[in-house]
Fold each of these.
Amino acid sequence: MDFNAAKLFISVVNAGSFSAASDRTGVPIATLSRKVNELEQGLNVLLLERSRQGVKPTDKGQQFFEQARLGIELLDDAQKSVTSAHRLQGKLRLSIPPNFSLWWDLLIAFQQRYPDITVFCHSSERVVDLFADGVDVALRLGDLNTDDVIAKPLMTLETLFVASPELIACRGTPETLEEMARLPVAAWESLNQGLFEWQSGSEKVKYKPVFSSNNLQGLIHYALSGKAVVELLDFSAKPWLESGELVQLLPHQPQKKVTLHQVYARHKYPSALVRAYLEFCTEWVGRLS
C-alpha cells in the first residue's frame, strides 16, 4: 500500500472535499484524485462517495480511515522526528474564542520555544468541527456538551462587572444585581442568544441591554465611554481597572467562574506537535497563578 496515497486520502476525508484538502496540503486536486483512485484500485474497494457538495467515506472507507489514521500519524511523527534533527516542525491548526487576547502572548512564547512550528489560529464564536475543519486543538469556555472530544481543563476564569467612574458618579453605585439592572447595560449576544440574566448565589436578575454585540471591543468601548455597565472576563478587565478608566461593581458578590478547556479529538492520537502545545499551555498557565 502507498503510504502517501493513504495519507492524502485521510487529508481528503478530514477536509470534506478535494478542493479543501488541496488548500490545506498544497497538493493539486488532480494529484489528490489520482492518488485516491490508485489507493481504491489497490485495495479493490470504493473508499469515497463523490458529489458536487464534496466527498464522504463509504462504510468501508470510514473503516479504513479510522484504522489507518493512527498508524499514518505515528509514521508521520516518526518521519518528522528523524528528518528535523530532533526539532519539532510543522503546522499547528488552533481555534480560540473571539477577542481572547490572553492567548496571543502564549502563542508568541510557544513559537519562541519551537521556532520551526507555524501556527494557524482560527477565532470565532462558532464551535468548530475538529475533523471537518482540520483543527488540532480548540480552546473552549464553559460547558462543552459533547462526548466526541477529550477536554483538558486548563484554568478557571472569573467574570467582573465594570463601568466607568463617570457613569457611577452620574447614576450612583449599585449595591445589588437588581439595582445594577436599572443602569444601562451593554451585553454579549450571539445570533442565537436572547436571554439576558445575571446570577450570583441564589439571586437571579433579568435585564434588558441598551446595546448588545458579539464584538468585545464594542462592549468595552461602551463601558469606557460611560454609556453602560459591562460584564467582562477578569483578564479583559484587568488593564482598564489598573488604569482607573473602569471600576469594578459589586466586588463583594460571588463572581461567576468559567472553566477554560483545551479540546482535541477523542479518536485521534495527539501528534508530537499537539502534545508539545498542550504541555506548553499547562506550563504557561501555571506561571500565571
Amino acid sequence: MSSIAFQGQFGAYSDLICRLSYPEMTTLPCETFEAAIEAVHEGRAELAMLPPENSLAGRVADMHALLPESGLSIIGEKFLRIEHCLLAPPGASIASIKRIHSHPVALGQVRRLIRELGATPVVEYDTAGAAEIVAAKNSMEDAAIASSLAGELHGLQILRRNVEDESHNTTRFYVMAKEPVVFAPDTPNLMTTFVFNVRNVPAALFKALGGFATNGVNMTKLESYMVNGTFTATQFLAEVEGHPAQEKLRLAFEELTFFSTEIKILGTYPADAFRLAQRAGG
C-alpha cells in the first residue's frame, strides 16, 4: 500500500485531510515539512500533503520558501474545513475543565470558548500532540483542542464540536509528487502555481503583471517574500487559472519573461471542488 507524507503526528489536521482525500493510502507522519518532502524523494511516500495557507492564520511559515526548492511538483489542491473539538478523558465534563491545551494558533481560534469556561490556555507544540498529552494526564481538569480524529486515536471524548470562533476556518493543502501530472491544455478548471523574480527597475512588477490583465488571465493569488534574507531580492508566488500552453496564458508568460529574472512553474493541477463551489457562489 502506498503512503502519503504529512507534517505532524497521527491525528493532526494534515493527517485527517490525507485520510479523507486518499483513503486507500497509509499516512506517514513527519516531524517537519522538509522531512515530508524528503520522504517523497526517498521513495518512502508517493505523495506529500503540505499546507500553504489558512483562511484565518494566513500564510504557513516557511512553506513558500520551501516550495521552489523542494524538487516536487504540485499535482492537486485540497481544502479542509477546520472543525476544532474540545476533547477530554472519559468522565470529564464541561464544568470540570480548568486548562485547555493546544497549538497557539488553535488556541487563538477558540478565544470565546476559553472565556466561557474561564479556563487557562496551555500552549503545546501541535493539536494532535495536545490530545496525546491530555490523554496521558487523564485529568478531569485538562482538555485539548484538536480534531475528532485525534480524539479517536487517543481515546478522548468529545465534549463539544465546532468550538472555533469563525465558521470559515479553512486550511488549503498542496498535493505534491516527484513528477508532474500532464493535462491537456483544454482541460477545464485547471490552476497553475509559479514563482518569479522581477528586474530591479521602476514599475517592474506592474509591467510584469500587465500581460495577465491584457490577455484576460484571472490571477487568484500573488504574494511576495524575501529571498536569502535580503531586503532587495523579492520573490513572488502567484496562481492563475488555466494551463501554461493555453494561448492567453502562454502570451502572459511571454510578457512576464521580459521583466522577470526567473520564472519557475511549480505545478498545473485541477481546482478543488471547494474552490469551484466558491467560484460558482460569487
Amino acid sequence: MDQLKLEHVTQYNQLKGVGTQHPLVSIFDNSNSNPLPNNTRLHFGFYAIFLKAGNCGELKYGRNNYDYDDGTMVFVAPGQVLEVSNTDNYKSTGLTLLFHPDFIKGTALFKNINQYSFFSYDSHEALHLSLKEQEIIKDLFNKLEYELSQSIDKHSKNIISNTIELLLNHCVRFYDRQFITRENINSDILSKFENCLNDYFHSQNAQDSGLPSVGYFADLLHLSPNYFGDLIKKETGKSAQEHIQLKLINLAKERIFDTEKSVSQIAFELGFKYPQHFNRMFKKNTGYTPIEYRNLN
C-alpha cells in the first residue's frame, strides 16, 4: 500500500485537483474533485472534516472499516492515518473542510480544540446526521466557503475560526443525540464493561499485568478510548476511570476483612505495584487507611 504524508493543506488540494484559496484552510464539494488515490495510506498533518453524501467508498481507520452512508461526518486530527479503499465505480461526493493547526493559533478554537474528543474516534464511531442536522452543517460549510471567497482582511481569521468552532459545537450536540438514540447499544456496552471488570479482577490479570487502563477495556470492546470514555460518561455521569476505581475500592473493602492476608498482599492481588499507592487511594476514597478500616469493622 502506498504511503502519502500530507503536511500541508495545499498537498491535499492538489490530490483532489481543487484550487487553493487559502494556504491553511480549504473547503470544497467533492463532486467537483478527483477521487483520492486508491489503496493509499494518508498521514494527516492538519484537521479534516468530511460530510459524506451517498456511498463514498470505504475508509479504514485503526482496525475497522466503515461504508459511509449519506449524512455521515468523519473527523481527522493531525497525526492520524486514513486508508483509502475505493470500489471501481467510486465517485467523490460530499463536502470537505481542512484547516491547519497554524491557522487557529491565537484563537479561542486553538484553546478548545482538544475538547472535541470525536477527532480521535474510530471510523465505525462516525457521526450520523438527520436531515435537519445535515442542513445546519451544510449551512455552516456554505458560510465558510463564502468567507474564503472574499478578500482576506483583519477579520477573516476570527470569523472563519469562530464558524469552525460553531460547527464543532453543533457536532458535540449531535453526538449527544446519537448517544441517546443508541441507548440499547450503549446499555449492552455498559454491561460488557462491567463483565470485563469482574473478569479482570477475579483472574490473574491484575497480579500479572497491574492496574488496567481505560484503553485496555476500550480495546476489548472494539472501541476507541475517547468514544468509550465519552459513552460511559454520558450514560452514567461517571468517567470510565472512576468506574475502574470504584470497582477497585469495592473489592478492596471486601478483601480487607480477610485477616489471613496482609494489606500488601491484597494490594498486589488488585494490581498495585506499590502498597503505599493502594493505601493512598483507599484513604482518599474511604477516609480510612486499610488497617483502620479493618479494625473499625
Amino acid sequence: MSHVLVTGANGFVGHALCRALLGAGHTVTGLVRRAGQLESGVNEWVDVSTDFADVGATWPDALQVDCVVHLAARVHVMREESADPDAAFRATNVDGALRVARAARRHGVRRFVFVSSVKALAEGDSGRPLREDDTPMPQDAYGRSKLAAEQALSSYGEESGLDVVIVRPPLVYGPQVRANFLRLMDAVWKGLPLPLASIDARRSLIYVENLADALMHCAVDPRAAHQCFHVADAAAPTVAELARLLARHLQKTARLLPVPLGLLHLAGRLTGRSAHVDRLVGALQLDTARIRTTLGWQPPYSTDEGLAETARWYRSTHGGRAC
C-alpha cells in the first residue's frame, strides 16, 4: 500500500479521491489551506501560505509519502475579476504547483500526479476525439496556465528525476457539482425552456467517482510513469441528451426548443457571450485509448449511473429551495 498526499483534499474532486484511496487501503494525507472538512481517516496538513509559498519550509519532518496528487488550483471562473487573469492563474497553477513538486522531490517523493484540464489542449475537437499528443491551443487564461504548468512540471521532472504524470479531465460532474452543470440542473428542475434541441455535437464529461478512480490508478500503478492521460466517461452525450437524462433522474420533463444554431451564435454575439455559445454547441470528445491500453483502466460507473447519483443529491439538497 502507498502513502498519497492530496492537495486540495477538501474540494469537490479531493473528497472523492480520498475516499477511493482509503477504500483501497492506502494512507492519505490532505494538504489544505483550511482545517477541517476532510474525509474521516485522512491525515491533515494545513498550510495557509498563498500559492504554497511556504510548503517547503512547513513540510512535516515525519511526513514520508510515495506520491503527491496535485488538485489544488485556481479554477476556471465565469466572471473574472482580476486585472491580469493570466498572471493570477499562473501564480497559483504554475508557480504554486512547481513549489509543491520541488518540496515533494526534496522529501523523497517519487511520483507527482498533476491534475490538468482538457482546456490546456483545446475547447473543441475539430472533428475527431482529442489525443494527448495533439498540438495544444488553449483559448483562455485558465487553459494557458494549465498548459504552462504541464510543461514546467515535465521539465522539472526530467531535470530532477521526479516521475510526473499528467491527467486531463473534461467537465467533472457529481454530487456537490457547481457552476454550469448546477445551473443546467436548476433550469431542468424549474421546467425552463432551453434552446438545446438542435445541438447534436457530443462532449466528453466525467463522473467525479470515475475521475477519482483514474487518479488513484495514476498514483499507484508503475505503468503510469511519465505519462499524460486523457480520462472521461465511456459515453459522450450531446447537450440535449444530457438535459433529457438529467430530467429523467430529476423526475422532471426537459423542455427543449429546436432553436437553429445560427440564431444561438447570433444571440451569443449580441450578448457578448460568443465564447460561451461556441463551447455549448461545439464538439469536444476525448480519446481515452492511452489510459485504457496502458493501465487497463475503464470507468467503473456509467454516465447514467453518475447522473442518477448527481440527481439524487440535487433532489435531497436543492429540490425544496427556490432556485
